[in-house]
Design goal:
This protein is an alpha+beta fold and 315 residues long. Helices cover 34% and strands 24% of the residues. Helix 8 packs across helix 10. The longest helix has 28 residues. The protein is globular, with a radius of gyration of 20 Å. The structure holds zinc ion. The site of zinc ion has 6 residues, from helix 2.
């Protein structure tokens, strides 16, 4: 779908959710995100073909953040078009470059203490090991044409190196999965999975940053296109969700002085939110763990010594 002149949203479905990549065609051709391993061959290249663009015409590919549905196609693109430069946020580089590192350090690093994680059978979706040609830390500008550029924004919270792209000329922001509302929707309506931000204070500062940016239209990795008031509501709902988590977690710990495990806290939060599908609850491990880390730093909770799985209680 052409969003506005020279800018395209490439769309497919992944696990019932929309999965979007964005293509900018000016003096340079820039692709934002590459989907899962099969997305370039099945979706991105055929779409470019309709525009009479060859994969070899891609100047730059930007992976907004370390996740299998955003980085999985990097290897397929580089194999087809070796001259295309691959890039991502510097702080996500190790995770984006290697699916095994992604699973070890992002999806399964809580398994040992908390018995939660993502099955290794999903690893092929993340594609193959592929080095980045460059990395961004935010503040860079990518030229698309005279008076038209993409500004690279560093918007961490969901991951440390998360990037967004801002087209100031058109007041359009391409934010990947930087903002979560109260979950990620199914394409057909309703929620598909919980919020998966991780670093809570950093996430809140990213929300504030977006509120200060002049954005007429917001494009993301999975959420519907949003304009003005809808953007404000989405960010407000994101902040309210953070507040709800803290409230529910502290209330439940108060009722359970012996402590609660990560899975028990996920259940409490999921029941309070009310409409995350039950088979997706485990994905709230990131956000709930992020809240527990923050509450621990604030001195409000502490670990129960020797507990397995690990439990927290009020401090
Ligand atoms: Zn995503």
């Amino acid at each position: 779908m052409e969003l506005y002149p020279g800018v395209y949203q490439i769309s497919s479905l992944f696990g019932g959710r929309n999965l979007f990549q964005y293509l900018f065609v000016g003096d340079n051709a820039v692709l934002v995100d590459t989907g899962i391993a099969e997305t370039p061959g099945k979706v991105i290249f055929p779409y470019m073909d309709q525009l009479e663009l060859k994969p070899q015409g891609l100047t730059l590919v930007i992976t907004t953040h370390a996740d299998l549905d955003h980085q999985g196609g990097n290897d397929a693109i580089k194999r087809t078009s070796p001259q295309t430069w691959l890039s991502c946020g510097e702080a996500d580089r190790a995770l984006v470059e290697d699916p095994k590192t992604l699973f070890d350090l992002r999806y399964n690093h809580l398994r040992k203490d908390h018995d939660v994680g993502l099955d290794l059978e999903f690893m092929p979706l993340a594609g193959k090991t592929r080095r980045m040609d460059l990395s961004f830390s935010g503040g860079e500008k990518i030229r698309l044409g005279d008076g038209w550029e993409l500004e690279v924004l560093h918007v961490p919270g969901h991951s440390h190196g998360h990037l967004a792209l801002y087209d100031r000329k058109n007041k359009a922001a391409f934010v990947g999965d930087a903002i979560h509302g109260r979950g990620c929707p199914k394409a057909a309506g309703g929620l598909a999975i919980p919020v998966t931000y991780y670093y809570v204070d950093i996430y809140l500062s990213t929300l504030r940053y977006f509120e200060g940016l002049e954005i007429d239209v917001l494009y993301s990795g999975h959420w519907p296109v949003m304009r003005r008031e809808a953007i404000r509501d989405f960010i407000a709902e994101s902040r309210q969700t953070v507040e709800l988590f803290d409230r529910v977690i502290l209330q439940n710990l108060e009722r359970n002085p012996a402590g609660l495990s990560l899975q028990q806290l996920i259940e409490a939060v999921a029941n309070a939110v009310g409409d995350w599908p039950k088979d997706s609850w485990a994905l709230a491990m990131f956000s709930v763990k992020g809240h527990m880390d923050r509450l621990e730093q604030l001195g409000k909770v502490r670990g129960v010594p020797g507990s397995r799985p690990f439990k927290w209680q009020l401090a």
